[in-house]
Specification:
Number of strands: 0
Distance between the termini: 9 Å
Number of helices: 20
Largest sheet: none
Radius of gyration: 22 Å
Shape: globular
Helix content: over 70%
Oligomer: single chain
């Protein structure tokens, strides 16, 4: 009997709503905090460390995602969801009481520990209660949460800090999280454990060391200097020990079925690439709009929001397309859209309008929505209930890891080109991004800098295009079949 058969159809809608609320809470957290950071810095100080407010949250979230996925398979989705959301809400409350930047960073780390449960568990719970054919369609609803959060986050964040204390941006999570937990407590039945294995503590330790060292190296590459090599070496050594331990463990953290399935491996590889390609637009399109065309942060955010609109629309379309074609066709179509959107980045010029930038972001968003949904649904339909949690978590983790790799790689390409083209300039990117500094530059210097920085960013977009092209190969590995009716 499938999990969906054990739940009344009417109750499934309440469970879906609970998962969407939890996902919205985690999705809006990123944009709403970014909007409020200038106010927080003005109150707490510590500008030199404010980057860690975001980095530490992403780090603890990424490290715990696969752990929650595996524990959900062993101990049950419902229990782990309550634990994760509770940690997230406690961290949110504590963040509002932080009186120094150091304490805020510490509480954000605690908040990230809970956030690592929300994405994989909400997606897994929804996969449990809907049949394989229904999953393809319902993913569009989940993806729409990110589009709404991308639009509401900056607007609500700006309004809250203007009319209330900045602490409120963290405390608004509490009622949303409590409603989500109450709905799941009422409508999601607690399923008996099918496995009685204990958690693989040694494997978890090696995983956390390896992932933490790798993410610190990627997220703080410019700050670490030569220490970067030490962190990369530590990540590699820990990964080797993890692999050896997993091969001997009676209850491996990553079951062997994951590595033996070409479809699951391809799904993870696809999301790794999507995460890396996504940073080409998420991190550097706003830089182009503000630095090259002289646009405002609002214009940059508006253009980028088009990606968040295209993503859920394409996700919904892909759900229908999979049912009448196949996983492979849908993934390949999404890959072509992603490649086309990445190619449009190369057509941007200094006089390009906001509409062109928004269209480019929209096309990339449709490609990402179509490919990521196809990879996720195909993996969830292929995985048995006993390993669906870790399989879903691995998809989420791969995308996070890809984002970190993409940011580091493209940032290195940009810095190399800037050093080669503007060797005498002192932090030219920062100066043309600031309106005051930009106006103070001589006209000839400003135009030269814009020309050279634009050429440097074009090389970043070339890298993004090459990464996007890899999705077409991954899509070819997808099976030429449709979602089935039953698990």
């Amino acid at each position: 009997m499938t999990e969906s058969a054990e739940i009344q159809t009417g109750n499934r809608h309440w469970i879906l709503m609970a998962c969407m609320l939890a996902m919205f809470m985690a999705a809006i957290e990123v944009t709403i905090v970014a909007t409020a950071m200038p106010t927080i810095i003005a109150d707490l100080g510590g500008f030199s460390h404010f980057g860690w407010v975001f980095s530490i949250y992403l780090l603890t979230q990424a490290v715990t995602v696969p752990l929650y996925g595996r524990l959900a398979d062993l101990w049950g989705r419902k229990t782990l969801f309550f634990i994760g959301v509770s940690l997230f809400l406690i961290g949110s409350v504590l963040c509002g009481f932080a009186h120094t930047m150091t304490w805020l960073i510490l509480f954000r780390a605690f908040q990230g520990l809970g956030a690592g449960a929300i994405m994989p568990l909400t997606t897994t719970i929804v996969a449990d209660i809907y049949s394989p054919r229904e999953r393809a369609s319902v993913q569009g609803w989940l993806s729409s949460v990110w589009g709404v959060a991308a639009i509401l986050g900056p607007l609500s964040g700006a309004w809250l800090v203007q009319h209330f204390s900045w602490a409120v941006i963290f405390w608004v999570n509490v009622p949303i999280g409590l409603i989500s937990m109450l709905l799941l407590a009422r409508f999601l039945p607690a399923r008996e454990r099918r496995q009685h294995s204990s958690l693989n503590i040694t494997g978890c330790a090696w995983l956390m060391i390896s992932v933490s060292a790798l993410l610190i190296a990627l997220l703080q590459a410019e700050v670490l200097g030569y220490w970067l090599l030490l962190f990369l070496l530590l990540a590699l050594i820990a990964a080797v020990f993890l692999k050896r331990h997993e091969q001997r463990a009676s209850a491996p953290l990553f079951p062997l079925a994951i590595w033996r399935s070409r479809l699951i491996v391809a799904g993870n590889a696809g999301n790794l690439i999507i995460g890396a390609a996504m940073m080409g637009i998420s991190a550097f399109l706003p830089t182009w709009i503000q630095g090259i065309t002289g646009g405002t942060p609002l214009q940059a955010g508006s253009a980028l929001a088009m990606m968040s609109i295209g993503w859920p629309l394409a996700s919904t379309l892909s759900g229908r397309l999979m049912l009448v074609t196949s996983y492979r066709f849908t993934a390949q179509l999404g890959a072509l859209l992603l490649i086309a959107g990445s190619a449009l980045l190369l057509l941007l010029r200094a006089d390009s309008g906001l509409m062109q930038a928004g269209l480019t972001a929209f096309v990339i968003g449709t490609g990402m929505g179509m490919t990521s949904t196809t990879f996720l649904v195909s993996v969830q339909n292929h995985a048995h209930y006993e390993i669906r949690g870790i399989c879903t978590a691995s998809i989420m983790f791969s995308r996070m890891l890809g984002s970190a790799i993409g940011t580091a790689l493209m940032g290195a390409v940009l810095n190399y080109n800037l050093m080669r083209r503007l060797p005498e300039a002192n932090d030219p990117m920062q100066k043309i991004m600031s309106h005051e500094s930009r106006q103070a530059l001589p006209h000839g210097t400003l135009q030269e800098w814009i020309t050279q920085i634009a050429s440097s960013l074009h090389w970043v977009f070339v890298v993004a295009l090459l990464i996007a092209a890899l999705t077409l190969w991954i899509a070819w590995l997808m099976p030429h079949q449709r979602p089935e009716n039953e698990d």
